[in-house]
């Protein structure tokens, strides 16, 4: 995912902004709304603040979306130079057999699957973290720390109440994290922006403008290179 980081010294706030341009067979306003609601709700929940110029700056996440036709998405992608724009095709299947964001972290082009319960679980919020460059944590045991962090992968050890089956032995069948209990932690929000020089500029672009479209099953579509006329 590409995004912009907007720093307002007046409002002492830092806003991470991204715009999802959805297309494909299963792109709908209803699904788009569920996806952005999950991302915004979860990533704003910790009410993160970071210190900058000796002041506490609030960190906000603002993701919105629109659904576009095949023709409109093509016009848009050919001229895009805005880091907020991410082109995401929504389908039932693809050759990677999972939702993907281009070929590397930070790409502004993706192919997502409706079978990943986007917007109905914590998957969209988890994938948003990957898209902004966060890996899975090295820590695999989050017992006695409350709800596990959003970037915790399947198989993570947690307190009994956050397991698939609260009665299972930790690590045994049913004794690992049920993903619905993941929550974004403030340190995960900080991880996204901590390497940036926030004191200098007002807007920072992150990610890469690959501006790639995908076909129905997730193969890249050639946009410019084969125009020989
Ligand atoms: Zn993951």
What would you say this structure looks like, in words?
The chain has helices at 29-44, 70-78, 123-131, 186-193; strands at 3-8, 13-23, 49-52, 55-67, 85-91, 109-113, 203-206, 213-214, 220-221. It has one domain (3-136, 186-221): Collagenase (Catalytic Domain), CATH 3.40.390. It is α/β, with parallel strands linked by helices. Mean pLDDT is 91; it is low at 225-229. A hairpin with a 4-residue loop joins β1 (3-8) and β2 (13-23). The longest helix is centred in the N-terminal third of the chain and has 16 residues, at 29-44. The two termini are 33 Å apart. The chain contains 4 helices and 9 strands. Strands 1, 2, 3, 4, 5, 6 and 7 form a 7-stranded mixed sheet that branches. The chain has a two-stranded antiparallel sheet with strand order 8-9.
Brief characterization of the structure:
The protein is α/β, with parallel strands linked by helices and 229 residues long. It has four helices and nine strands; from the N terminus they run ββαββαββααβββ. The strands form two sheets. Strands 1, 2, 3, 4, 5, 6 and 7 form a seven-stranded mixed beta sheet that branches.
Molecular shape? globular
Instruction: Give the second-level CATH assignment, the architecture.
Output: 3-Layer(aba) Sandwich
- Count of β-strands: 9
Structural class: alpha/beta
CATH class descriptor name: Alpha Beta
Instruction: Say what the CATH topology is.
Output: Collagenase (Catalytic Domain)
Instruction: Please work out how many helical segments DSSP would assign.
Output: 4
User: What are the secondary-structure elements, in order, as H or E?
Assistant: EEHEEHEEHHEEE
Low-confidence stretches: 225-229
The residue-averaged pLDDT reads: 91
Whole-number total of structural domains: 1
For the terminal residues, how far apart are their CA atoms?
33 Å
Largest sheet: 7 strands, mixed
Cofactors, ions, other ligands: zinc ion
Beta fraction of the residues?
Answer: 15-25%
CA-based gyration radius = 19 Å
Helix proportion: 10-25%
């Amino acid at each position: 995912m590409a995004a912009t980081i907007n720093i307002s010294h007046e409002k002492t706030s830092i806003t991470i902004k991204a715009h999802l341009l959805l297309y494909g067979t299963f792109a709908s306003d209803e699904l788009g709304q569920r996806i952005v609601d999950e991302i915004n709700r979860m990533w704003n929940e910790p009410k993160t603040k970071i210190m900058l110029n000796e002041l506490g700056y609030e960190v906000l996440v603002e993701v919105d979306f629109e659904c576009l036709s095949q023709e409109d998405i093509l016009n848009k992608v050919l001229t895009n130079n805005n880091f907020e724009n991410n082109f995401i095709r929504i389908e039932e299947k693809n050759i990677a057999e999972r939702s993907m964001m281009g070929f590397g972290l930070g790409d502004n082009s993706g192919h997502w699957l409706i079978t990943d319960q986007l917007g109905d679980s914590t998957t969209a919020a988890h994938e948003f973290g990957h898209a902004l460059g966060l890996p899975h944590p090295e820590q695999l045991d989050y017992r006695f720390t409350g709800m596990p962090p959003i970037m915790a992968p399947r198989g993570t050890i947690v307190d009994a109440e956050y397991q698939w089956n609260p009665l299972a032995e930790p690590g045994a069948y049913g004794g690992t994290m049920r993903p619905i209990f993941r929550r974004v932690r403030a340190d995960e929000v900080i991880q996204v922006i901590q390497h940036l020089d926030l004191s200098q500029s007002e807007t920072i672009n992150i990610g890469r403008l690959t501006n790639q479209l995908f076909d129905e099953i997730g193969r890249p579509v050639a946009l410019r290179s084969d125009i020989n006329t």
